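Hi U.,

Before I forget, here's the chain from the pilot set. I'm dumping it here mostly so it's searchable later in email.
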Amino acid sequence: MALLEATAPLALALIAWTGDAAVFLGAALLLAVGTSIMGPAPAAYAANVAPDEVRGLAMGLYRSAGDLGFVLGPVVLGAIADATTLGGALAVNAVIVLAVTLLFGATARESGRG
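Structure:
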């Protein structure tokens, strides 16, 4: 995994375990950089690998899955924070982001279309 793809999970881990304001601000900046790098890639990949005749459907399903995560993610992480700590919830988030990044990197293949 390249360093750029590791910035978001690393930043989440730093935020989870720091008590220092300067480290928190640096990690927040690192998280912004990491998510801006990681954000467009899955959408571009989905558009690239979807067959032309179902590209609209594929993008709609991709966006719907993202919306579902946008709704359920805070609820699940909030429950984890209530059961453990806020740092624990952020650590779980970091592990999930790292696992998905590694899975995508290991399984994603180019479609051959330019």
